[in-house]
User: Fold these one by one.
Assistant:
Number 1:
Amino acid sequence: MSVGRFDAILIDFYGTISAGDREAVESASRGIVETCGLAVSPRQFAIRWGDRFFDVIEKSNHESFRTLYECEKLSLVVTLAEFGVEADPAPLVADLEEYWLNPPVYGDVFDFFRRIDLPVCCVSNADTKPLTTAINNLNLRFDEVVTSEAVRCYKPAPGIFEQAIKALGVKPDRAIHVGDSLHSDVAGAAGLGIATVWMCRDNRVHDIGTCQPDYMMDTFAEIPKILTA
């Protein structure tokens, strides 16, 4: 592939490369609603839990850093407390733990990796061990992997994107980031002048973002057209 406007690609993982993000969240929420006897639908619970999760994430950067697993558990405890329920969160997030380790993958991903020859960095709000396990299980080729745990901050905080472009040795305006979250991916990358692709597969449970992406797509098959434009 000839090089066009961009010298490198940054790509989110869960919900962008891996499928089943919505299913994993709703499955966990369904089990929580049933186990705790909550008078709310699994989807309604998932949305409320998601809001609390974003609240925790925003307060878990740098010196206050918590791992994603800790953020999931803490936000669940806070959400259940709103229903007057106290419960050990660990067994209730087991479905999400399994998803992080063994996620299904969208069928267009492998063809995309075969077609590109630009350096690629995975940029993920994830704990390092489950993410690297998932990548190795899928045999995906990344030149660099940057996790929130490694840099102790979460997208949309700039630090994780700064580390990614530094690792690839490119300038922000010569990189493009692909992700499924307007809040975490699009807003975070755009804040540094990195071009953005919103991978809108219409399967997110909830997104608090409003930032406008440079491109909106629902499949990786369309991205090579941007790279060679």
Note: The first strand starts at residue 8 and ends at 11.
Number 2:
Amino acid sequence: MTLSPALDGHGFGLLRYDLDGLPRGSHLAIELNSDTLRLSYDRLRFGRGEVGVNATGEALIAGLLDEYYRDGRNEPGRGFYASYAALGGYAKLDAAPHFLELAVTARRWLFQRNGSTDGDLSLPPEAWVGELRLRYTLWLLDGDRQAQRLHPRVRGVAFGVELGLDQRSEARRWGAPDETRNDPARSIYSVRQWLRAGVKVHARVRFQLDEVACWMSGEDDLVRLRVGGLNPYSVPLAGAPWAGYLAGKVAATDATLHVRAWREHEVGVLLDTVVLDDADRAGALGRAAVLAGVGVFADLRWRAWQLDLRGGWSPTLRPNSIAGGWGMFAALGWGWSR
């Protein structure tokens, strides 16, 4: 939810079922996250090798493309419905703590106008996309990764690099007549790097850091990184709308200081910093902007129950050059296991 320049918000509902103990250590997962259905059968082991397959479908609001933010303000006429269906698989070499993975996905995009889309806005072509990813991961991290724990508590460090290629069957310029930032190539190249670390500095105090960097070539708003909000589904920026910014060149950090207040309950402060290109969404893809946000959070746990509360403010956003933007996030979760 964002509070400036006007009250606005998003919501999501997540249901997930995991089944372990299958042949060769494999794992089945079924997940429904609002408009997105994911099915995966993975972790199928062959010595040091591991393989898996997955299928995903998302209806109407894929990438939150039904909204179009510029300078923190939503312009409904530039939004449209986006859907896709995807089928993929991967093979991974396990040389723990080092992992090397090759993943391939076939995706089909579908688009349509919503009730607010401007009549002169051209939609992207409904293309097939072949996606190739080569990933290296160093994993020296302990954490409580559970579906209801959207912001896991971690200790140690993990690092990853990903090389990507998206090959589209068709590519052309799309968007509003005055828009120049969505003129993609048929071949889109990307390099991504991420780091997650956590350290206990006192019996009651922990520090966590999440960092990500990305560089893309030939991209458009279908694949650019989503920046904004305090949820785990985009690059966090306190005070910004969820996916208020879409960028192909990003470097960002999310630093959190946690204090154990009572039993398993933690509270703390957060600092987000983001460097990204074309923050004005004016087609200036070589122009960088620096944004920042600060906030507070509560990570509250009662056995299998989880309550996440986060709120923050950014003095660097432009919906109001003096006040910046305010935002908050709340999530309630519960997990069950046999």
Note: Residues 319-323 have pLDDT under 50 and may be disordered.
Number 3:
Amino acid sequence: MFLFLTPPRSFPEHTFFTVARGETLRSVSQRLSDEHIVRSRILFQMFVIIRHRDRHIPAGEYFLDRPLFADEVGRRFANGDFHYVPVKVTFPEGVTREKIAAALAPLLPNFKLDEFLGLTKNTEGYLFPDTYFFPPNATTDMVVRALAHEFDEQMKPIHDDISKSKFTLPQIITLASIVEREAAGENDRALIAGILEHRLAIGMPLGADATIAYVFSKDTKQVTHADTLINSPYNTYRIVGLPPTPIANPGIASIRAVLHPEGTEYLYYLHDTDGIIHPAKTFAEHKVNIAKYLR
């Protein structure tokens, strides 16, 4: 008897079971058995009828998060306990769409990683990093729409600043994505934005390790001199101007930093091992900082 109470070995975890409106208890129990959710349809029916005194099962989608004993399956279905617990996920500033996909794939059964990457092929930078609460049956399209909608909402309060900027919105987001990946703390974004914008103004390559890291899917600190020799439109050591697309999804602080950069005569900067930024006006000064803080 106990064996028939236990969940089948092939119980489909993290899946949904839909009960149609007006569907009979017999039909539901048979499908539960066929789909390896219960071992015995008769036992399931008994739990529904005896314990809950009702042959009616509320229609809807039931989320089966883990293998359940037959009495628990009966309780959930008799009481209409759909078990919709929102899935909480936080995407940090500077996250790429590949990392968004990797984070969501094991959490949402109806989310398809390849589909997400296809739908977001041209939207890097416009998928706003934040904390989201998704229903467990969220589809790929629902996720994409949520991320894009939040981006639009975050842009509304700064619409006037964007319209007054010397940069277009794509340029703002691209530059903000570089600032996001180059910054080491909350307090150096405006200075980095000012230095990068200074370089742009005089036609000097940005020389940002973050754009090289994007090409190689590396951490910024892992970029080598050899990496900077690559022939790529994202190699800001070789090209002048911005790369063709954002390299990450920036947060609002980096976007605001681009809109309100710190005015500066500096052209170079580095971070020491404690994450403290050290700017320089000339390459000679920059080399001194390298020798002082990185060796």
Note: The chain has three domains: 2-79, 87-156, 157-293.
